[in-house]
Structure formats: structure tokens, C-alpha cells
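Title: Prediction job returns without error message
Component: structure pipeline
Severity: low
Priority: P3
Assignee: unassigned

Description:
Job completed but the reporter wants confirmation the result is attached to the right record. Sequence as submitted:
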Amino acid sequence: MKGIEIGRENSILIELAANECDAPCAATTKKRESIDDMIDAHVWIRRRESRLDRRPLPHDSVPDELLTESRPSYKAQGSRKQRSGCSCVHPRAAPIIREGDGIMSCSTMPEWILALCTLVLAFIAIFPATVHGWIYHPKFTVETRTGPPECVGVPISDLGGNFITDCVFLRVWIKNDGSEAAKNVEVYAEKLQRRRADGSWEPVPRFPPMNLKWANANGAIFYPIISPTMGKHCDVAHIVDPTNRRHPNLTEYNQALKLAADQTSLAFDLQTAPNHRGHIVEPGIYRLGIIVAAENASPVRRTIEITVDGRWDADADRMLRDYVGIKVLSG
């Protein structure tokens, strides 16, 4: 006879026959039924405690010895039936399904997982555009360099095609590095600062915040679409030959600056030239804060630093190399 202890606090002593079944089949069956009742009661209590405490059922809640002793090997069962004709192996002593170190409770996990999935699917169904925007959206980068194709020398003519003056345009490249086409893109000049002799920066009070012009777009504020991996030039500012600055067809003269006849000025390419000519500034080092935005994209802030020496050269390459500079700083 062999004794096996079950549980952690109360011990129940169960005696099982270790070898062949010598008792009559009816008596053995009755003993097996009592063992079955004790196992069922113990497992039910432990599972109830597990659900109340939100803890998995311990691995040792039903000892392996009870299961192995109650269920002999198939080979042993076959030899026993052949010898005595008795098949009274415990019918309920089957292995208990375990995961990890304990029995997993399946009564609560499926419900909250199913509820969470239902909420997620409902949100996607109600707000498909929002979810699409989280995954697929435009992403802007702003690039430039002091040279073609961003900065170029272009002659200015009147409506009749008559030459007026030479001009150097300073531009930036607005590129879409995202996974979705950017719609109705705009570039806004937010603020302008000038560098002082001591290295500090001060705002230019007469500068009017306004949208910049898209290059070769007839003054459009919004560019309709910029596809992924594509870009578009935006005019930032320009410099004209100072000897032709007062031409009647131009708006390049700011009397308040009191510049010399051969000294250049910097004019920002705003959507509308204000009457006080606050968009035209004297030579110096400036920082222009811009915002790039679109209908379906988050705004991007960048700072453009422009250096104007004040001298003019009819050769655009020398002008961009020696007397003018432009670069993009961080936001």
C-alpha cells in the first residue's frame, strides 16, 4: 500500500493498490469512484480559489503521483487484463492540461480580449480617415543650397518681353518624404530676425508675416499636390541689380533704407508686397522662420539663414559664390 498527500493545508490519505487488482471488480470500482469524487472536489475548490484571486492554479494542486498511480501504463493495463480479466483502471485519472507552471483559466481572458478587439474594429469603422492618416501621411523636408537649381539668376522682363533688369532668386526645395501625397501645401513666413554686431538676434519689426510664393506658379498660395518622393521650389527672396531698382515696373525700392546707388537690397517674395515696403531689407545676415503645412500633414517649422554682402555682380555664379549665401537651419 502506498500513501499520497494532497493539498497544502488539509491532508487526505488515499490508499491505492500498487500492483495487480486482487479485489473483486465491484469493490475496486467503488474505491475508484471515491477517489474520483475526491479529485473532482479538490480540483473544483482550487479552480474557484484561482478565479477569485486571479491567480493560475498551482502545478501541484493535483499531485502527479495520484495521476500516475491511478492510471497505470498501457502496457501494464494490457498485461493485467490478459492475466485477470479485470479492467478496473481509474476512468477519470487523465492528465490535466497545464500551461507554464499552472492550469490556465480560460473563463475571463477571452472576454476582455474580445471586447478590446470589438472596440478597435468599431473605432476603425467610425474613423477610417483618422486611422489611415496615422499609417499613411506626408512628411516634409526643406532643403537648399547657394547654387542651381535652388538659387538661380533670371532676367526680369515686362509683359511685352522687354528686358528690365537682372535678378538672382533664392529658393528652397520642399520635398515630401512621406507615404502619402501632400494636398494643398503652403509655406508661411512667420518672422524675420537680423543679426546684430554683438552676435545676438533682433526681430525686424516692419516685416509682415505672410505666405511665400511658389516658384513658377503664378502667385498661388496653395500648391495642389506634392506626391511622395517629389518636391517643389518655393521662392524665398530675390536681389535685383541696384542700378535698375527704381524702374517704374518694379517694386524694389524702399526709401526708408537710404541705400547707396550701387548697394543691393533683399526683397522677400511674399504673396502681396505691402505699401510700406517692409519686405525689403538692407544688407546683413537674416533668419527667416517658415512653416510648411498641408491639408493632410502636420506643420513643419524651419529657419532659413540668408547672408547679403551688399555688392552686386552681373555674373550669377560669382554673385552666389561671393556675395550671397543661404542655408536651412533646424526648426
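Comment from assignee: result matches the submitted record. The domain at 140-329 is CATH 2.60.40.10 (Immunoglobulin-like).
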